[in-house]
Amino acid sequence: MTSASRVAVIGGGLAGLTAAYELAEAGADVVVLEATDRVGGKLRSEAVGGVTIDVGAESILARRPEAVALMDRLNLAYEPARTTSASIWSYGELRTMPKTVLGVPGDVAALLESGIVHNVTPEVVPVDEDRDVSVAEFVSARLGQEVVDRLVEPLLGGVYAGHANRLSLRSAAPQIAALGADLVSAAATAVAAPAQLGPVFVAPTGGVHRLPEALAERGNFTIDYNSTVRAIERSDDSWRLIVGPAHQLHTVDADLLVVATPGSATARLLSDVAPEAAFALADLDYASVAIVSFVLDGGTALGDDRSGFLVPPVEGTTIKAATCATNKWQWTRDAANGRVVIRTSVGRAGETLLLHHDDATVAEMALADLRSIAGSDLGDVVASHVQRWGGALPQYEVGHADLVATVERAVATVPGLEVCGAAYHGMGIPAVIASAQAAARRLLDGRTMED
């Protein structure tokens, strides 16, 4: 890539903005084409009861370096979570969760004492390194189904909104795969290891939505809003993009192209230029979820030291998790001025009926669960907000690594084309940033994915 290269980035979510930022920093002339009137994708804020809160992702894993390093480069202030103490609602009580590796306990006695599960049957089972399996198959064979149902499922559900019997061990739970045949012994070693320096979770002061806003504000690139890309065409050594509403189409020309959109949109755009990649991405399922947020007055039910709780699917509730934002984040606590802000999440892969209800009904159902779990002293609702995320979370099902490899091989055969985002190598914010930075580096180096 030369410094005079014109780069088009399709998608103004975190991946697209990060790729644009890196390419512009290297001297490229970059335009981001965003289909809506705002950037950030699933990183978004809303004012609820006069308090501005995140209604998408609300924390960043600090133990991976990419997000923290990017915020440092942007001079974006961030803070650690005030508390990360979480519980699980199991067998009718909120129970403190012992240390685990994504639900795999290092201390079976402590787990049984917690009451989260009633039975654990540890077994040492050889690992077939050549076969990808579901998380449920791997863990249940070594610890029993109850550990899957009441520990692993709620933890995975918080990340993927998926199901352990379909999610890939290798792609969705590599931490568990790394434990090997003797899960308990390996987990005991892992949880007993000296803690790494620094916090587990951080977020920009004011909320995670500040990260894409900072990229847009401080990046040396152009953003074209309300610019849906209808098609892309490869001509000689350049790209032509067909952009805009059907009645007012125009073209954008570029030397290089980054596609940073969800799987279905990427499949549509690549159908002519990289059909094998498009065909593979068409098989990638997505889960729809909603974040239901409440501003409450006068309640103390969750105390001052609990960040939230998870709910296993076997409990049959509407909500799958809740986070007390005023316990977890100091800026939310300050802005709430004595009130309590709680976010609940609803929806899992394949569960469509719930989200067919109107916002008021979804909020009522979530609040009923919250009162049932947190207790009567929850406080009065000052305001609520329902944020729907349709088709938001890619499902890393068994065989996902092969799907991604197919996409990468196909894209690598098309000069000047890259893809990035949550569909490939991780859904967390640091992983999405890493995906975008890797795509930018490949374009900057003039290499393909196979190099």
Topology:
Layout: E1 6-10, H1 14-25, E2 29-33, E3 45-48, E4 51-54, E5 60-61, H2 65-73, E6 78-80, E7 86-90, E8 93-96, E9 100-101, E10 104-105, H3 108-114, H4 135-143, H5 145-160, H6 169-172, H7 174-177, H8 183-192, E11 201-204, H9 210-218, E12 222-224, E13 229-235, E14 238-243, E15 250-254, E16 256-259, H10 263-270, H11 275-281, E17 286-297, E18 308-310, E19 319-324, H12 325-328, H13 330-336, E20 340-346, H14 359-374, E21 380-394, H15 400-412, E22 417-419, H16 429-445
Parallel strand pairs: 1-2, 1-16, 2-12, 7-18, 16-22
Antiparallel strand pairs: 3-4, 5-11, 6-11, 7-8, 9-10, 13-14, 14-15, 17-20, 17-21, 18-19, 19-20
User: What sort of overall outline do the alpha carbons produce when their principal axes are compared?
Assistant: globular
Give the radius of gyration: 22 Å
Could you tell me how far the N terminus lies from the C terminus, measured between alpha carbons in angstroms? 15 Å
What amount of the residues lies in strands?
15-25%
Helix content: 25-40%
Instruction: Please give the order of strands in the largest beta sheet.
Output: 8-7-18-19-20-17-21
Number of helices: 16
The overall pLDDT average reads: 93
Alpha-beta content class: alpha+beta
Total number of strands: 22
Largest sheet: 7 strands, mixed
Q: Enumerate the spans where pLDDT stays under 50 for 5 or more consecutive residues.
A: 447-451
Plain-language structure description:
The strands form six sheets. Strands 8-7-18-19-20-17-21 form a seven-stranded mixed sheet. A five-stranded parallel sheet has the order 12-2-1-16-22. It has helices at residues 14-25, 65-73, 108-114, 135-143, 145-160, 169-172, 174-177, 183-192, 210-218, 263-270, 275-281, 325-328, 330-336, 359-374, 400-412, 429-445, and strands spanning 6-10, 29-33, 45-48, 51-54, 60-61, 78-80, 86-90, 93-96, 100-101, 104-105, 201-204, 222-224, 229-235, 238-243, 250-254, 256-259, 286-297, 308-310, 319-324, 340-346, 380-394, 417-419. Helices cover 34% and strands 25% of the residues. It has 451 residues and is α+β, with helices and mostly antiparallel strands.
